Automatic annotation (TrEMBL), chain A:
Superkingdom of this protein's organism: Bacteria
Keywords: Glycosyltransferase, Transferase
Glycosyltransferase subfamily 4-like N-terminal domain segment(s): 20-178
Protein's name according to its UniProt entry: D-inositol 3-phosphate glycosyltransferase
Gene Ontology terms, MF aspect: glycosyltransferase activity
Domain Glycosyl transferase family: 183-344
Pfam name, any one: Glycos_transf_1
Alphabetical list of InterPro entries matching this protein: Glyco_trans_1, Glyco_trans_4-like_N
From TrEMBL, chain B:
Keyword Lipid biosynthesis carried by entry: no
Cellular localization per UniProt: Cell membrane
Name of the molecule in the record: CDP-glycerol--glycerophosphate glycerophosphotransferase
Gene Ontology CC: plasma membrane
Organism: Streptomyces caeruleatus
Listed PANTHER family: TEICHOIC ACID GLYCEROL-PHOSPHATE PRIMASE (PTHR37316), TEICHOIC ACID GLYCEROL-PHOSPHATE TRANSFERASE (PTHR37316:SF3)
Amino acid sequence: MTVGTRERDVFLVSNSVDEMGGVTSWSHQMARLFTERGHRVHVIGVTTPEDPHDLGELPYPTTRLYDGQPPAPGRARDASMRAKAAVLTDLFRAARPGGVVIVTQVWAMEWVKLADTSGLTVVGMSHESFETSKRSSRFQRVLRHYRDVDRMLVLTREDADLWIGAGLDNASFLPNAVPWLPQVPSPRTEKAVISIGRLSDEKGVDMLLDTWAEVAPRHPGWVLKIYGSGEDEEILRKHCTALGLDDSVRWMGRTSDVPGALRSGSVFALSSRGEGFPLALMEAMAMGVPCAAFDCAPGVHEIIQDGEDGLLARPGNTGELARRLDLLMSDAALRDRMGDAARENIRRYGADEIAGRWEALFSFLER
Amino acid sequence: MNGVKVDADQRPSISDVAVPDVAMSVVVIVYNDAARLPTAVRSVLEQTLRGVEVVIVDDHSTDGSYEVARRLAAEHPDRVRAYRLPENSGGCGAPRNHGILKARGDYVLFLDSDDVLERNACRNFLEAAETTGADLVSGMCVRVHVDSRHRKEVKWYPWLYARTRTLDSIAELPDLLVFDTLSTNKCYRRQFLVDSGLDFPVGIHYEDLLFSAQAYTAARRITLIPNRVYDWNVAEKAGAKSISNRRAEIANFAHRMEMHRRVDRLLADQGLTELKFRKDVKFLKHDLVLHLRDLPSRDASYRQEFAALALPYLASIDPAAYDEVEPIHAVCAYLLRTSDWGNLLPAVDTLTNRDKVSAPLAERDGRVYWCAEHIDEDPLARRILDVTELGYHSRPVGKLFLRNELTEYRQAEGGGGVVRLAGRVTNPLGVIPPAARLTAQLEFYARRQGVRFQTFRFPVPTLRHEGSYVSWEAAADLSKGLRPLGVVDAVWDVRLHLDVDSERTTTRLTAAGPSLATGQVPVRPRLTRLIADRIEPQVSARGHLAFRLVPDKKANVLVTRGLQGTPGRLAKAGYRKAKTLRKKVTSGDTKLRLYHDVFLRMPVHRRLVVFESHLGRQYSDSPRAIYEEMRRQGIDFEAVWSYTGKPQGFPSDATLVRRWSLPYLRALARAEFWIDNQSYPLKLTKRPGTTYIQTWHGSALKRMGFDEPGWKLKSRAEQAEQQRSLDRFDHFLIRSEHDVRTLAKAFRLREKTLLRVGYPRNDALAQARESAERPLLAAELGIPADKKVLLYAPTFRQQGGRRFALPFDVERFAEEFGDEYVLLVRAHYLNHVVLPPSVRGRVIDVSDHHDVTPLLALADALMTDYSSVMFDYALLDRPMLFFPYDYEEYVHEGRGTYFDLLERAPGPVVRTEEELRSLLAASSLEEQTLKYAAARERFVADFGEHDKGTAARRVVEEFFTDWRKAQ
C-alpha cells in the first residue's frame, strides 16, 4: 500500500445490489478492488429485483433496504424512507473516522440524504454523459440531490465542466477502470467486425447496419458479428434483411465470454446514440482489437485517441463510420498498429491506477 | 514591498503559531465596511476545504471595521488573523500587499469585504493547482446585482471559463489578459508571488489591471476552471452624478490611462506584441466605448479634459487594430483622434443605438463613407470611415433607423401645457428625396412593453429639407392631448413617424445636449390627478427624450401609496394579467389546440387550396407555377397563400394569410388541398379529406432526411414523430430516378405517393429554351442589350450569420468583366449580400426577387457552387460554371453528398478567385457551350428526365379537371 493511504470504511450505495447493469457491475468491481487494498467495504442497495443476479460468494457484506420495491411515491414512501434512512444511519455510525459513502446513482441519494452522514465524506456519482442526463429527468434530480455532497463525480473532465456550467460547483471526475488486462491479445486474424451490446435503440445497431450496407460490398469475405440480445432484435433483423445484408451479418446472441468474442474478430465497432464511459470499448482495446466508434459522448474520445489507438466518426454519420471501418478492414498493418497502441494506452485505466486515484480523492476531501 | 509599518496583532503569541495544514490564505481587505466584513469572512470559514486561513487587513478604517476584524480573530484564533495599516492608503494595493506578507498558506487569494467566495472555491482551486502545478488558477467571477429585484447575476467573461484549460503561457490565450483583469477570482501559489516579486501598485486606482497583467505574464502555467469562485456584489449607484463625481470621473480616467500605459510597457518589455495588439483591439471596442457613451450627456469642458487624456493614448494604438473592430468603433476612435466633435457626437449615438444611421454619409468613387470630412486629406480616414459594408446605401428609407436630433424644446409662455418641439432627421445619401411628399406625427407611448393601453399622437405641421437633414417643428398641447392613466405607466417615450411618400420611417428624439429639455408640464392623468398632474422631460439611457409623470411634492406620499399601494397594485396586476392572457392566447400550444380541437372539427371547405413556398417567405417555385396554371385554365377554386413577414409581392387575387396566424391555421384545417415545397408546420395533423401535394424544392446533392446524421441520431420515438409529419404527403413530385433513390428513400415515402411529372417551376425553363428572345426582366433590371447576363447563385452558408460574403472581389470583377457581363447575385433566401455602389449597373443584387426561375431564364450563364438550381438551369442547355471554393469543408465536414460533384459537374470547375478570372478571361461563353454540350445532356438525363415542360398542366389535369368552370 502506498504511503499516505489508510484503511477506510467504504459504503457503496446503489439502486440495487444485485440487478443486471453497468452501474451494479461497477459497484462490485470497485468493492473487490477496495477490499483487496485493505478497506472495509459494504455494498448497499435500495431495492431487491424480482429476479436477482447471482453474485456468488462476496468478500464483503451487502445490505438491501427493501425486500422488493419501495412503496409508490406518497406518504407511505416517505414514512418508509425515514425508516430505511435510520437503517443507513446505524450502518454509517459504526464507521471509523475517515469513512466514505459513495452514492453511485442519484435515486439512491434520496435515501442517503435522509440519513446521518456526519463525520463521513459523501461522494455522489453519475455514470452517464451530461448530454444523456440532460435528456432525462435525472438532470434536475442530480442538480437537486447532489448539490451538497462533498464531491459529485462524473466520468470525464468534459462532463464535469458541463455540470459545473449547470451550477454544480462541487463536480469533478474519475474515469471507470478497465475490468481486466488479458495476457494474450486477440490474434486479429478473423475477417470479422465485432459489436457487443444490448439490442436497444440507445446502442444504435440500426445505424451500424446502415454503415455495414455501405462498407460490406467493398469487402467480400468479411462478416459483421453482432453480440447481444434485447427488445429490438426483431426490428433489427428485419432491417438487416431489408438492406440485403443477411449473408454478411451474424446474430450471435448474448455472450458471457467477452474475451472469446473479441478473439474471433479483428475490428470493433461502436455505433451508440449515447454513452457514458463505454466498458465495451475498453474491453476491446484491452484485447488489442482496434475500434471505430461514433464519438457520441466525452467518454468515447477520452478512451479513444482518434487516429492513434482507434478511429472516431461524427455521431450518426454512417458514411463517415463506414469510411473508418473501410480503412481498418483494408489495412492489416494499421489494425496491428492501432490494436497494439490501444492495448498499451488502455492501461491508464488499469484497476490499480483507478483505485489509487480514489484513495487520493478520499484524502484530498479530508483536507 | 510597500514598506508600510503595521501595528502588531493583539495576540502575537497565538497568531504566530503556524497552523499546520493551511493550504490557502485568503486575504480579506476592508475599509469602513464593518457591516459586511463578517459575511465575507464567514464565506471563507465555511469553505468545504478546511485548511483555509483568513488574513484581514484593515486600511485604517474609521467605522470600527478593525474592531470587528479583531473580534472575528478572537472567535476563530486558529483561522483568522487581523492587521491594520498605520494610515489609510486610499486603495486596495497596500492592504493586499500586506496580506501577502502575512499569508502562510501555500496559496493566496484576495477577497474584498463586500464580496463572498463560493463555498467550494478553495477546494476547486487547490485541486486544479495541485493537479496541474499551475502558479495561477483563475475561476469564474459572477457579478451579483444585490439591489435588483431578483438579485440579477451576470457572469464575468464566461467564454473564458467555459471549460477547464491549462496554459503554459498567457500567449496561448491573449483574451484572458485583455479581458479578465480582476485579481480577486484567482488563486496564486504564494512562492510564485514571492519569487516573482509580485505586488500591487500603491497610490493609484485600477491596481488590478497591472497586477493581473504581471501575474499572467510571470506565471509558468495558468489553469482556468469553469467553477464559480467569486461573487462580486454590485450595489446600484444612487441618484444622478454630481459635479464632484464628474471630477472624480476624470481623475479615475487619468488613472486608468496610466495603468494602460504601464501594462503596455510591461508587454513591450517582454516582447508580447500579439498581446499588446489584442489589448489595443479591446481598448477600441470596450474601454473607449464605455467613456464615449457618456460624452453626449457631458458638458464641453468635461469633453475637453477627456480628450486631453485619451488622445495621447489613442496615438499609441496600433493602426492595424482599427481593422479588427466594428466600423462604428473605428469611426468613433478616428473622430476623437481628429477632435471632430461635430461628427463624433452623432456617431456616439450609433454606438449606443447600434442600428441607427446618425451621419449624413457620403459617397465617393463608388464607396460609402461615414462623413464627407477627412477622406480627401487622410488616406487612413479613407480606410476607417469606409462603411460600405454596412449596406446603408442599399436599404430603403423604411428600413433605416435615422437619427432625429432635438434642436428645440420650449414650454409656451406662462407655463401652459403647450410644448414646442423642433428637430432634424438625418437624411443619409439623400434617401429622402427632395420631391418626396412628407408627413409626420409625434407619438407618445408608455415605456412598458407588451400590452399597450394608450398612445397619444400630435401632428407635425412643419417639415422641410435642409441640406443633409429634414427639419421639423411641432407644437404639442400635452395638457389637452396626453391623458395617461397615471398609475401604471409613469414613463412615456416619444417617437416621430415620418412618412416619405408611402413609406414610413420611425425615429426617436435624441436630446443632444445635457440640459436641452427641462421644466414640468401640466397634464391631466385620468386616474391620479390628485396626486400627479405634471410630466417632466427626461433623457433615457439611450439618449432619447422621454417624459416622466411627476407628483406634486406634497402629494408625494400619496403617489407612493398610489404606485405601491392598493390602486397601483391592482392596476399593475390587471396589466400583468392582460399580458399573460395575450401571451397565452398567442402561444404555440394554444394555437395547436385550437387547430386540432376547433378548426379540424369544422367541415372541409370545398375547393379551398392553401399554397406556400419556402415556409411562406416567397411567392415562388412550383406552388406558384401550379397556382398560375390553375388560374390560366380557369379552375374554379378558392386560393389562400401563406406569407411570412410582409405580404408584398404575393398575388392580389388570392386570400393572403400570415404563417401561424389563426386564419392560416383555419384555412389549413379546412382546405381540400395543401400545396407547398418544403413543409407545413410539423405539428399540424392533416385530415383525411385534405390532399397534400408536396412539390419539393430541388433535387439533392447533400444527404437529406433519414440519410442525414442528425435524423439518424434521433431516438425511435422522435423518428416516428418525424415520419408522421412526412407521411402527411399524399403526392411527392419527382424529376428523375435520382430523386427516387435519394429524396424518396430519405423520407421513407411509399411508392404510390411518387408523382413522376417533373417540377412545375421548370416548365418556364423548357419554354425559355426554345425562345431566342431576351425576357422583359432584362429591361426592368436595366441590363443593356449588348451585355451578357451571368447569374451567381451560391447555396446557403451558416458562417457569419445571415450576411454572405462574396468569395471574390466584386469591384475588381466589375472592373475586369463589366464591359462584357452584367453579374446578377442571388443569395440563398436565408442569406443576404451587400454590394458597393461602385458596381452599380454592372453587378445587381437580385436576392429580393421572389422567384428564381425568371432569373434563370434570363441568364446567359450560371455560376454556382452546390445550389440545386444547377439541376434546373441545366434544362436551358446554357453554359454553367462551378465555383465550389470551400468544397472539402462543405462536402466532408458536412453531412455528406449523394454523388461527387467534381466528377459530374457539366461545366468547368474553378476553386479560387484567380481560376475564376482566368477562365472568364480566356474562353468565351460560346466555347463553353460547345465544350460541355455532351456533359450537360448527360446531366439532364440523370437529374431531370421527367422535366418536359408540362408538369403544371399534368398536375392540374390530375387533380383539378373537375373544378373547371363551365365554359
